[in-house]
Amino acid sequence: MVRQYLEGFPRSGIGKMKRRIRNYMRFRTDVADFQALHFSEICTHKCFTNQTSACCGREGIATFFADIVINLLLSSEGEVDAVLQALFTDRGGFKCVYLTENGCVWRLKPIVCEMFLCRHAKETVFSTNDALRNRWESLRRRERRYTWPSRPILFDELEELFIRAGYDSPLMYFHHSPGLLRLKERSGKFP
To answer: What are the C-alpha distances in Å from 36 to residues 40, 44, 54?
Structure first.
């Protein structure tokens, strides 16, 4: 659905969307850099190699509609095909459908995946370093600027764009989730 819509979208509109996600992409770069520096070795061993953490488990993935839109905006046709191929050839099992022997097939992983740190990883890195724990908490607060609808946010805006074009998806949590709708209503900042 997202691919179909974006294929028919004017080039100027695609450029506008890409400009709109720039701050989000800076945030994602900051998170990726932090994780690569402090968690890569731990997470590769615990999650990927030994398959013992829930972060890459089938039941652990939650995808916002905006994750899909942003991923498609950034991805090549081949990368989009790889995501669709993972869905079409899914055989079930314990691991995330998008996790291959080469890692995640998404160009930009869903935000829930990117921001998840298991207890083992957090204890290993943060138990002796409050400065790193504080830096992580700062990144968690920045995440809310995009995913917590107490004010207008990027993820809600991207859903709205597709809704106005006549599309609907159960992944449009900012327009369907009772909890997020209540949060939007309580904020008083949404029409």
So the answer is: 5, 10, 19
